[in-house]
Design goal:
Elements lengths: L2 H12 L6 H23 L12 H20 L7
Length: about 80
């Protein structure tokens, strides 16, 4: 191996890993919200409208949305970008 090859390998080793970051996180959250809208619709409600005394179906939709968003935060923000 010549000096240029060694320098190239060393330079590649020093480049930090790239993370998906905000774009992957935003796409993941968009998917979560789309599923929440479908869940609300299946329950007969409109997503984003205040519901006093929310029924169990809506509470389930909200719990699923929270889980999905938390998964986005732990996975999509740390996923490496090829």
């Amino acid at each position: 191996m010549n000096l240029k090859s060694h320098a190239l390998v060393l330079l590649a080793a020093l480049i930090p890993a790239v993370n998906g970051g905000p774009v992957a996180y935003a796409l993941c959250q968009t998917g979560c919200n789309a599923v929440a809208v479908a869940c609300y619709g299946a329950a007969g409600f409109t997503f984003g409208v205040t519901i006093v005394g929310a029924p169990a179906a809506i509470l389930g939709c909200n719990a699923a949305l929270g889980t999905c968003m938390a998964t986005c935060a732990t996975v999509a923000l740390l996923a490496p970008t090829p």
